[in-house]
Design goal:
This protein is of the alpha/beta class and 265 residues long. The protein contains eleven helices and nine strands. The structure holds S-adenosylmethionine (SAM).
Length: 265
C-alpha cells in the first residue's frame, strides 16, 4: 500500500494526540460515550453496512459498533491511538490517515461517523466534503461535537488554558468547544441535516489529580504544554477545577454534547 498523504495539520495533530495516547484511551475517551452510543443508535447499523469512523482515535466507537456486525473502517492521524484501536478491535480495518485525504475509493460507505472529529482540520467543510466523496448516495452521517460553552461545564478548562496563550489573531475561527457552526458546515458540504439533539455526558473524577491526568491527555492540552510548560498548565487546570470540586474532593462537570445525523441525498 502507498504511503498515506498527510497534511501538516494532520501530522501535527497526530503528534499531539500520540503524546499521552494510553491515558486518553483508558481515562478520558469513554466520557463522550453516551453521545457516541446515541449517534450509533440513530444510524441503526446493520451487518449489511460498511462504516467509516473518521478520526477514530483509540477506537472506542469502533468497538461499540462491532456487535452490529457491520464492516468497520477507521482512520486517525495518531499512530499511537491507531495501535490501541487495533488491539481493541482486531477485526476492523484501522489505519493512519488524514481526513483531508481519505485512502478510499468514491462512494463505498453506507455510514460515515465523525465523533469530535471534523472540528480539527483547518478546513472542516473540506473534511466533510472528503467524507462525502467516499459515502454512497443515501449514506447516513453521524456526528458528535461539544455543546456550547454554556452547555459544557468542562469548557472551563479550555478557557483556563486559552488565558495562558497570546490572544488569537483576528479572523481565527472560534475554539473547538464554542464552534456551533456545524449545521452550516454540513449544508456547505452538501449533506442534509436529519437530527440534532443534546446528550448529557457528565465527567466525574474521584479527585483533582485524576482530573488533571485525564484532561491533560487531549491533544489541545498537549499543544499548550508545549508552548507554556507543564507547570503553568498544571496550575491553570487545577485552579479551573475548583468551582466543580465537592467537599470530598471529587470533580464533576455537567456537559451536553451535540449529536447530529445527516444524509448524503
Ligand atoms: C477528540 S479526539 C476524538 C477521537 C475519537 N473520535 C473519539 O471520539 O474518541 C480527535 C481525534 O482527531 C484526530 N485528528 C485530528 N486531525 C486529524 C486529521 N487531519 N486526520 C485524521 N485524524 C485527525 C486526532 O488524532 C484525534 O484522535
Amino acid at each position: 500500500m502507498s504511503e498515506p498523504v498527510m497534511s501538516a495539520s494532520a501530522r501535527r495533530q497526530g503528534e499531539l494526540w500520540s503524546a499521552d495516547a494510553r491515558v486518553w484511551a483508558d481515562e478520558q475517551e469513554f466520557r463522550a460515550f453516551p453521545a457516541v452510543e446515541r449517534a450509533l443508535e440513530l444510524v441503526a447499523l446493520t451487518s449489511a453496512d460498511r462504516v467509516l469512523d473518521v478520526a477514530c482515535g483509540a477506537g472506542g466507537a469502533v468497538r461499540l459498533a462491532a456487535p452490529s456486525g457491520a464492516r468497520l473502517d477507521g482512520v486517525d492521524a495518531s499512530t499511537s491511538l491507531i495501535e490501541i484501536a487495533r488491539e481493541r478491535t482486531p477485526s476492523a480495518n484501522l489505519s493512519v490517515a488524514d481526513m483531508m485525504h481519505l485512502p478510499f475509493r468514491d462512494e463505498i460507505f453506507d455510514v460515515v461517523c465523525g465523533f469530535n472529529a471534523f472540528q480539527y482540520p483547518t478546513d472542516p467543510v473540506g473534511a466533510l466534503r472528503e467524507a462525502r466523496r467516499v459515502a454512497k448516495v443515501g449514506a447516513r452521517f453521524a456526528l458528535v461535537i461539544w455543546g456550547s460553552d454554556e452547555q459544557c461545564e468542562a469548557s472551563a478548562h479550555f478557557r483556563a488554558l486559552r488565558a495562558l496563550l497570546a490572544p488569537a489573531p483576528p479572523g481565527t475561527p472560534p475554539p473547538l468547544a464554542a464552534d456551533q457552526r456545524v449545521t452550516s458546515y454540513l449544508a456547505s458540504a452538501g449533506l442534509t441535516l436529519r437530527h440534532d439533539e443534546l446528550v448529557s455526558c457528565p465527567w466525574d473524577y474521584p479527585n483533582a489529580a485524576a482530573a488533571l491526568r485525564a484532561t491533560r491527555s487531549a491533544g489541545p492540552v498537549r499543544r499548550v504544554i508545549e508552548q507554556v510548560g507543564e507547570r503553568a498548565v498544571n496550575e491553570a487546570l487545577l485552579a479551573s477545577f475548583a468551582p466543580f470540586t465537592s467537599p470530598s474532593g471529587a470533580v464533576h462537570y455537567d456537559n451536553q454534547f451535540r449529536v447530529l445525523v445527516a444524509t448524503n441525498d
